[in-house]
């Protein structure tokens, strides 16, 4: 691995020996499985904190922190680190909204979460369970007799989209449109396409808001329109920010974990057999695969100078919070490169601190129901030996296909 | 130092000492008590540190904030986020019950 980046211009507070290339940078593509070697090599070869000239979206510099304990400290620290300015979708199209709650710092953030948390507790989600199972069954019925399929395309993408459509009470016929926009927003490197998709998504939500104002239902948009913080209602910008947050937070992340989980089970028939024989192990297995395959990275901006790992982060510096590295830190997890279904470890899969994932119970439920159904409905499956799997690296680490065969 | 006892769903009990000012969640994590995850590190966002406080003790713990309440199910009487229970001398001897799963 070539780990020293060609140095062009580095700020004076950055020690030159900490300037590195970073294989997980947005825009990179690999034909290997990055969770097998790449992640663990970074832990073996890199210092605890290093500086990468082009890892921030758009190709600018950021610090990368790889240790679980340092990452937890950053997530928990809103005195030195802010979420403001990350995910600038609104800015791209000249709008003024922020993501709700991901784009807010405390104390506003806590008011948003106090409002939204009750919608996403395990009991509140119970009533969704039947729906989630129906969606899974419907999708599986569409491909189970075919003997082969790209699991990403037939299940991992449409499954969470269908559930979010339901939460927003939008017709399932909008599925194709949603999937296209999601792809343009999160997997297209062309800025014009990202802008167009942002406009499309925001346009749709504005339309839905108008309709729900006239005809409120028991969906999340109607909830947001009628919600109160103290004695004020949410502004239109806040409602858009909330809907947009669900769109970018609740789709791709679930898709990615589904892709990795079924690729893993396809490549490890003995582990697949274990879960088939004992479905009660599924929740723990999912917990462990969420750790091992933690896919998401986001960024913070330094708002007050602070030292970490022997270096100084200056005001304005960007810092990558990479759940993938934190969840595979050998100082925190014994032999992190092993998937052990009975590990029951607390990982960084859903982040930490005040922004810990609002939808983690929903995500876990989706993944659990999906696995119960898929293992019951499909015979043992394996990877198509002919196929090459390419994986996109970046903010979300995701394979472009999961070619399964069975029967 | 104050003493806290964690009771598992199968009745097994483990007692640990906590330094004052630390939370019950931290005590569980530092002593490898199973069943308390604490994913958000005590920031009142994950609700993976829930415990049911023994009825004899619930009145002695300061009331929950609105944010904490937003993460607890209405039907769960005496359930608190253990990251929000800070050890004080008055809580020496506290008994809490660990749920079968933080994820249900
Ligand atoms: C396995 C699937 C998922 C993973 C791996 C995941 C991961 C994450 C991570 C790492 C964060 C923290 C980001 C940061 O602090 O910068 C986060 C926040 C968030 N996630 Fe998820 N997520 C998943 C599913 C979902 C779902 C299904 C929803 C839909 C409800 C959702 C909604 C959100 C929201 C709204 C936030 C922002 C929370 C806040 O700022 O307080 N996520 N997620
Ligand atoms: S540790 Fe997350 S709410 Fe207590």
Protein model, in words:
The complex is a heterodimer of chains A (407) and B (104). Chain A is an alpha+beta fold and 407 residues long. Chain A has one domain (16-406): Orthogonal Bundle (Cytochrome p450). Chain A is 44% helix and 13% strand. Chain A is built from 17 helices and 15 strands. In chain A, helix 6 runs antiparallel to helix 8, helix 9 crosses helix 10 and helix 11 packs antiparallel against helix 12. Chain A is globular, with a radius of gyration of 21 Å. Chain A starts with 28 loop residues before the first strand and ends with a strand. The model of chain A has no long low-confidence stretch (mean pLDDT 94). Chain B has a five-stranded mixed sheet. Chain B starts with a strand and ends in a 7-residue tail after the last strand. The model of chain B has no long low-confidence stretch (mean pLDDT 95). Chain B is globular and about 30 Å long. Chain B has helices at 24-30, 55-58, 66-69, and strands at residues 2-7, 13-18, 50-53, 79-81, 94-97. With 104 residues, chain B is of the alpha+beta class. The longest helix of chain B has 7 residues, at 24-30. Chain B has a single domain (2-103), classed as Ubiquitin-like (UB roll), CATH 3.10.20.30. The interface between A and B is medium-sized, with 30 and 26 residues. The structure holds protoporphyrin IX containing FE (HEM) and FE2/S2 (inorganic) cluster (FES). Protoporphyrin IX containing FE binds at residues 101-102, 113, 245-246, 249-250, 253-254, 257, 296, 298, 323, 349-351, 355, 357-359, 362-363 of chain A.
